[in-house]
Amino acid sequence: MAESSTRTVERALVLLGAVCDAGSIPLADAARETGLSASTALRLLRTLEGTGFVRRDAAGAYRPGLRVVQLGVQALAHESLVSLAEPALERLVALTGESAYLSVPSHDGEGIYLAMREGTHSVRHASWVGRSIPLDGTAVGAVLRGEEPAAGFVVVRNGIEADITAIAAPVSPGGQVVAAISVVIPSYRITPAGTRRIGALVAAEADALLAHIPSAPAGQDLTGEPA
Amino acid sequence: MAESSTRTVERALVLLGAVCDAGSIPLADAARETGLSASTALRLLRTLEGTGFVRRDAAGAYRPGLRVVQLGVQALAHESLVSLAEPALERLVALTGESAYLSVPSHDGEGIYLAMREGTHSVRHASWVGRSIPLDGTAVGAVLRGEEPAAGFVVVRNGIEADITAIAAPVSPGGQVVAAISVVIPSYRITPAGTRRIGALVAAEADALLAHIPSAPAGQDLTGEPA
DNA sequence: CTGTAGATTTCACTTATTGAAACGTCCTTT
DNA sequence: AAAGGACGTTTCAATAAGTGAAATCTACAG
User: Fold this and answer.
1) Which chain B residues touch A70 with a CB distance below 8 Å?
2) What CATH number labels B7-71?
């Protein structure tokens, strides 16, 4: 039985996702969006409510509950990658003035931002931690998939977002890509020379990120605590 | 059937909680801790894994997955209370040098820190966002329960944590307590006069927090977006 | 080499989930 | 005012789905 499942739980989790995506959603919409019957959705949402994963507001609509916040923040704190990366992101911002990101592959064929540092320019790119990013047509995506061009970094000009240029480099201890460091810049501000310079910086930081790690045996699981 | 349930989902969520609490936990421990049979725990954890809520590390142990981080951060961002409170916390830190917190009642009879601002003193109290706090014997607890003494703030000296004094005041638009603002101080640093001064500051900030809000009808649901 | 502990799979039992339908309510429409 | 529609909620019989004891396998410690 390679296939697991547990339909009920899967459905509940999908519902939870829908509620979190929406921020606030009435029962009927949640049911529609997840393709569940109203009664099933109600029952599952009630279970989620009873455990604090969602709550109802005065209007009766469902919202993400505090348990979600709690577990999420806890989990984020346990991700040692972000604490390792933070100084690197900071340096990148200091040296480039642009926003810098750490992202990792998610389970569903996308990527997700785990940490960011906002740039200092007044016109800056603003994404946010926890945001999903497609792997197609993005610099981060190319890197997370393992396409590392000779230069050591990937540049995507006006990819998913128009007028935005992204420069990304892989964090790949032992050849296995576990994360990407990237810098995102309004395209009008970028020059060929600047691209090379920043690309080199990003690649250098990405390389250095896990260089100190004594002996990452198989280059696996560096998303957890190093201990 | 006033009682909801859905045993399977509840169990899965308890497991998820256990994994997040532990940070990293092998199947057997998770099963023991939740009182589930190994096979059931395995099946549920697999479901959680398939949806990205947990993942396995190289050793096979379970850890919080990225989905948890993602939803948690999303949810936290949607909490308008924290954006409203942040300036207040900042001011408190500026005026007192001590760490300041925003907390709300959780679903399980505890409280949870939703936002914090670290103090500037070299010896400071460090808790963290997402942390649970008991309601018994804490200043925050007293406030969240609705016990507002005449002074407008509660002081608890050496409560749960020894050598720590906490001063908390309720955020209660329309009489209903929805949150608490608090400052936490190493006890040796506090004086009677300082307590009064800080208490007044905390109470003032807590009062002012939702004063601007045009017309919070029944004083409900201010944890969500004000729209 | 033997014994214990964990992880994983199998499988028969039945419990617990399911969704259509019915109900009450609150709107908007005619 | 009455009719229509949408939503939240409850009921209930059918059965799909989850359960846990036991068996299997591996890894490791004695």
Assistant:
1) 72, 106, 112, 130-132
2) 1.10.10.10
